[in-house]
Amino acid sequence: GLLRLLDQSEDHLKTRRIHIFGSVEGGCTKAMIEASPQDALARGLHDHYYQSQLANGVAHGSSPAMVPWSELAEDFRISNRANADHVDTKLRAIGCQRASAGSDGRAVDAFADDEVELLARVEQTRWCAERWIGGWDHAGKRDDRRKLHPSLKPWSELDETERNKDRDAVSCLPSLLNS
After folding, report:
1. Sign, Cα dihedral of 163, 130, 59, 39
2. If you count DSSP H runs as helices and E runs as strands, how many of each does the chain have, helices first?
3. What is the pLDDT, as a whole number, of residue 4?
4. CA count, 13 A, side-chain hemisphere, 166
5. What is d(CA 169, CA 119) in angstroms, rounded to the nearest whole number?
6. Phi and psi (nearest 5°) for 97?
7. Angle subtended at Cα 65 by Cα 75 and Cα 169, rounded to the nearest 5 degrees
8. Cα dihedral 109, 111, 113, 119 in deg (nearest 10)
9. Which pLDDT score, from 0 to 100, does residue 99 have?
10. Spatial distance between the Cα atoms of 176 and 84, rounded to a whole number of angstroms
């Protein structure tokens, strides 16, 4: 809930200072973001999605997301970055974490089927929340202009084709993170 500080005297407020260091302009450039390891993971996630969908017979350009990263609209890049930002949370759900070389623990080359299933459900929930916050809604037919999508529904209501997209999206994580 909302709490009010007990000491709101003017003297107390004068002693509180904000100290600025560094430069927002220097640290938040497009080049800086695109060079980050997190952005590389976002690109890897999208590239994996794009290539797997092509392999499943989905045509290039059949939806706004069905293009290579270099052609991807910025809102879809942002969505992939949000997915990349959520990877550590998903990994913790199955007792894993990203680690550097020489870290304690057992290396993971692939997830067990039950882990893939849990991670896919979590990813579907994360994606739905992202879309709903962005003003999207469920509809029987996709309409990006009107922000409507048929997959904005609970996991239990998705068909296997849609579930497999999420399973595929999370099962690639070991190879992306180990490369």
Report:
1. negative
2. 9, 2
3. 36
4. 24
5. 9
6. -155, 155
7. 100
8. -150
9. 78
10. 11
The 8 Å CB, 24+ separation contacts for 158-162 are: 158/124
pLDDT along the chain (179 residues), means of 10: 42 50 56 70 96 95 95 95 95 87 74 96 97 96 94 97 95 90
How deeply is 124 buried, as exposed, middle or buried, from its count of CB atoms within 10 A (0-12, 13-18, 19+)?
A: buried
As a whole number of angstroms, the distance between CA 12 and CA 162 comes to 56
| Sign of the torsion formed by the C-alpha atoms of 116, 119, 67 and 47 | negative
Contact 38, 84 (CB under 8 A): yes
Query: In the chain, which ranges are continuous DSSP H helix?
Result: 10-15, 24-27, 30-34, 37-55, 74-85, 87-93, 113-133, 160-171, 173-178
> In the prediction, which pLDDT does 3 show?
41
Q: What are phi and psi of 131, to 5 degrees?
A: -65, -45
**69-78 per-residue burial string, b: 16 or more CB within 10 A, e: under 16:** beebeeebbe
